[in-house]
Specification:
Layout lengths: L5 E3 L2 E3 L4 E2 L15 H13 L4 E3 L8 H10 L7 E6 L1 E3 L5 E3 L3 H15 L4 E7 L8 H13 L3 E7 L3 H8 L4 E5 L10 H10 L23 H10 L3 H12 L12 H9 L7 H8 L4
Parallel strand pairs: 3-4, 4-5, 5-8, 8-9, 9-10
Antiparallel strand pairs: 1-2, 6-7
């Protein structure tokens, strides 16, 4: 991976990381379709140099964290684990808000237990878009968890620009994790603010939502034409574009297949030329 490491809560991480959301079963619920393949993917990612793994206890629930622990524990000193709190799962797999301070604390504690660690390097506070819990109450609890040593850094996920600015005025923000890709640029103002501030930005769904059958990113004609001209794949173009547009973008594409993992990691070696960057800059929904 040729890209220079970026500091994430003081820990140097390679810009191509791994997201564990696709390891559990369909709908991020229940056990994986192929347990051994999931373990192999995690071990292959780490062997390839990936040292930033993004997860959450509510992926499964517990499934993603259990797989990470089984595959990689005891963790080496260079591995940085990032989790998130603010959600839970119902018995039917439905996504439920868990936004109150006591729920955030419980979420951190369950992550610690399932990952088998005393501290999670970074925990993202994932805001609910229709939540009613004041942000300052949530940040106060996250800061307390950090002061107690249970988390190393506070990240933000699914936040607005105003919420990011509010958090900045209260505490150090380790990273911001929002939806952003070649097609989905609704968070451009927030992205630009993070770039200006030097805050690592971690786009989720870098190749389009995992919950839709057809990816508008990968099916875009400009992306496909660029991939064909450069003799690479459409996912590699989309990931390479994100790496190219700002130096502190950290990618966490996820997969449960070794071939797909190798394809994603190879995107770090793709250097988009000026023709590609110019064409991709104009891609829109």
């Amino acid at each position: 991976m040729p890209t220079a490491p970026v500091l994430l809560a003081g820990h140097p991480v390679h810009r191509m990381g791994f997201g564990a959301m696709q390891l559990p079963g369909t709908g991020v619920f229940g056990p994986p379709k192929d347990h051994d393949a999931a373990i192999a993917v995690l071990r292959a990612a780490r062997s390839a140099g990936v040292n930033h793994i993004d997860t959450a206890q509510f992926y499964g629930p517990d499934v993603a964290n259990d797989l990470i622990k089984e595959a990689l524990f005891p963790y080496d000193d260079e591995l940085v684990l990032v989790s998130k709190v603010g959600a839970a799962r119902g018995a039917d797999g439905g996504w439920l808000p868990a936004q109150r301070p006591e729920e955030l604390r419980s979420g951190v504690e369950t992550n610690l237990r399932s990952l088998g660690v005393d501290q999670v390097h970074v925990v993202n506070l994932r805001r609910h878009p229709e939540g009613t819990v004041p942000l300052d109450e949530q940040l106060g609890e996250m800061a307390a968890l950090r002061d107690e040593g249970l988390i190393g850094g506070i990240g933000l996920s699914n936040v607005t620009l105003d919420e990011y600015r509010t958090a900045q005025a209260t505490t150090e923000v380790a990273c911001v994790q929002n939806a952003y890709n070649l097609i989905e640029r609704a968070e451009q103002d927030l992205f630009d603010a993070c770039v200006e501030d030097g805050t690592p930005f971690v786009p989720f769904f870098p190749l389009g939502s995992a919950f839709v059958a057809e990816s508008p990113v990968l099916n875009d004609p400009v992306v496909q034409a660029t991939a064909a001209r450069m003799d690479v794949t459409a996912p590699q173009v989309a990931l390479a574009w994100l790496l190219a547009i700002a130096p502190r973008v950290l990618l966490i594409p996820g997969t449960s297949a070794l071939a797909h993992l190798e394809e994603n990691l190879a995107a770090a070696d793709v250097v988009l030329d000026e023709e590609a960057l110019s064409a991709l800059a104009d891609v829109r929904p």
